[in-house]
């Protein structure tokens, strides 16, 4: 418990030495003022210091205990104290939470986008968020969305609340200062953060123009993957996940606006205080962050290219065992040592769908075969059964290197994949976007046949002689 730290954040300043609580799935507790958490019960008649008790649940009350998520917030005023929600004008028409024929289409071709420009006009995180693709519906609590954000303005006197699902933030350019009801998260490119469904949060941009990726999941939450035969350790360690400590604002804010995303539409409600007025909290339903450089990769040590699932950081399950609504997978710096193996990703068609982004560096830069076109801030989508794999340059350079490729370290790169069982529909604006790379398919067109027919006849005549 962070009871000695008195975080009375009179402004939303983020100190350099932000404190966090470590762990994943823990029952945490945090007090900005010692004694603010009720002891022995959640909902006393009068809470310490006259605070209001409020529960936020992330699963139905009756969910099995091992899945049950909820937290208790002790706040200066309860979040119900606001004027009625009204449709936000203007809304954000590029935000989709119910994928259908009016807003998106099926597209089985290989798709790739260049990095989207960060606008010049003042744009905050809410207005700069645009859905690229997704499947299902937040109304039915089954599905996901992949968004990109570009923004250059902090959310002042605005808080966002996503009633549809959980957001996983993957910043690519610029730090995010995410103020949440549980406290502050600083997230730099190379780190990721999760803000679960329903938490109010405000995004500030201390570095100015910023860009990144967001995945949103409907109806479930992220878990750490099972490790199977890997054993009890490896990949993302629970203790490297960081949860904010309680921190509150109490200065009057006469025109504070809550922007609620509900069914993909935006609604606003006015209130006269900051929603970041939680003096203490406890529970297991919390925002958190994770530094991807802490990931402990496992990989091939003799032959063949392992499947990318070995690099799963977080997984959001479906009801089918082992089948993900959304896996968050990374391709971090690591040694390649496989012998007589084609080391880059194999050519493949996957029954799952793969959205990829690049945080920095070159993706799978095997033997410096610099594949063009997939640039930091860009993205690609290879949907269910859409063939893909290394481009011509990478194939030729890998084969030219032959058996001489000794141990080789892939460095200075960080790519990721959102992989889903559900077949994505692609949003209309994303298909019409000037950033769509219409020549993407060209990167494979040069792949030549290396088939040596003469070797086949030699092999069969040798066989006849035997
Ligand atoms: O398509 C991709 O680049 C992602 C990917 C990487 C890999 O090493 C194996 C399979 C796979 O889908
Ligand atoms: Fe793939």
TrEMBL record:
Residue ranges of domain Homogentisate 1,2-dioxygenase N-terminal in the record: 19-292
* List of residues binding Fe cation: 348, 354, 388
Citing just one GO molecular function, the answer is: metal ion binding
What is one GO cellular-component annotation here?
A: cytoplasm
Q: Which residues form the active site?
A: 305 (proton acceptor)
**Could you identify this protein by its name?**
Homogentisate 1,2-dioxygenase
GO BP: any one term: L-tyrosine catabolic process
Q: Which cofactor does it need?
A: Fe cation
Q: Which SUPFAM superfamilies match?
A: RmlC-like cupins
EC number(s) stated in the UniProt entry for this protein = 1.13.11.5
UniProt keyword Metal-binding present: yes
How far does the signal peptide extend, from start to end residue? none
Q: In which pathway does it act?
A: Amino-acid degradation; L-phenylalanine degradation; acetoacetate and fumarate from L-phenylalanine: step 4/6
| Family assignment from sequence similarity | Belongs to the homogentisate dioxygenase family.
Upper classification of the source organism reads: Eukaryota, Viridiplantae, Streptophyta, Embryophyta, Tracheophyta
**Residues in Homogentisate 1,2-dioxygenase C-terminal domain copies:** 293-451
Residues annotated as binding homogentisate = 363, 388
User: CDD domains attached here?
Assistant: cupin_HGO_N
Q: Show the coiled coil region(s).
A: none
User: Its gene?
Assistant: LOC110737740
Q: Which UniProt keyword terms apply here?
A: Dioxygenase, Iron, Metal-binding, Oxidoreductase, Phenylalanine catabolism, Tyrosine catabolism
Q: Which reaction does it catalyse?
A: homogentisate + O2 = 4-maleylacetoacetate + H(+)
Q: Which organism is it from?
A: Chenopodium quinoa (Quinoa)
């Amino acid at each position: 418990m962070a009871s000695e730290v008195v975080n009375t954040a009179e402004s939303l300043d983020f100190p350099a030495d932000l404190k966090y609580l470590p762990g994943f799935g823990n029952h945490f507790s945090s007090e900005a003022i010692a004694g603010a958490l009720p002891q022995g019960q959640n909902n006393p008649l009068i809470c310490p210091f006259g605070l209001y008790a409020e529960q936020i649940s992330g699963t139905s009350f009756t969910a099995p205990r091992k899945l049950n998520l909820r937290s208790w917030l002790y706040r200066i005023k309860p979040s119900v104290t606001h004027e009625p929600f009204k449709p936000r004008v203007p809304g954000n028409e590029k935000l989709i939470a119910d994928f259908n024929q009016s807003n998106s289409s099926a597209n089985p071709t290989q798709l790739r986008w260049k990095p989207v420009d960060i606008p010049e006009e003042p744009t905050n995180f809410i207005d700069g968020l645009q859905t690229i693709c997704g499947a299902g519906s937040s109304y039915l609590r089954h599905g996901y969305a992949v968004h990109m954000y570009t923004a250059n303005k902090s959310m002042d006197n605005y808080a966002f609340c996503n009633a549809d699902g959980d957001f996983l933030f993957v910043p690519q350019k610029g730090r995010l200062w995410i103020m949440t009801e549980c406290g502050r998260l600083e997230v730099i490119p190379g780190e990721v953060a999760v803000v679960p469904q329903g938490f109010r949060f405000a995004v500030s941009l201390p570095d100015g123009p910023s860009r990144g990726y967001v995945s949103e999941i409907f109806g479930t939450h992220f878990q750490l993957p099972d490790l199977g035969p890997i054993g009890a350790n490896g990949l993302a360690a629970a203790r490297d996940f960081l949860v904010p400590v309680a921190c509150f604002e109490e200065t009057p804010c006469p025109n504070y606006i809550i922007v609620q995303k509900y069914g993909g539409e935006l609604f606003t409600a006015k209130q006269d205080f900051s929603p970041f007025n939680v003096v203490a909290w406890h529970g297991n339903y919390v925002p958190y962050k994770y530094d991807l450089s802490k990931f402990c990769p496992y990989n091939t040590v003799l032959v063949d290219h392992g499947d990318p699932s070995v690099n799963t950081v977080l997984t959001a399950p479906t009801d089918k065992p082992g089948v993900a609504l959304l896996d968050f997978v990374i391709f971090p710096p690591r040694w390649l040592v496989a012998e007589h193996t084609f080391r880059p990703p194999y050519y493949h068609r996957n029954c799952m769908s793969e959205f990829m982004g690049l945080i920095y560096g070159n993706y799978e830069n095997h033997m410096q075969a610099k594949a063009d076109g997939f640039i930091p801030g860009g993205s690609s989508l290879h949907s269910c059964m859409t063939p893909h794999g290394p481009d011509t340059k990478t194939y030729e350079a890998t084969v030219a290197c032959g058996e001489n490729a000794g141990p080789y370290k892939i460095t200075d790169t960080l790519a990721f994949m959102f992989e889903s069982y559900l077949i994505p529909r692609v949003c209309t604006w994303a298909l019409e976007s000037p950033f769509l790379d219409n020549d993407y398919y060209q990167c494979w067109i040069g792949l030549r046949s290396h088939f040596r027919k003469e070797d086949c006849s030699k092999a069969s005549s040798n066989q006849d002689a035997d």
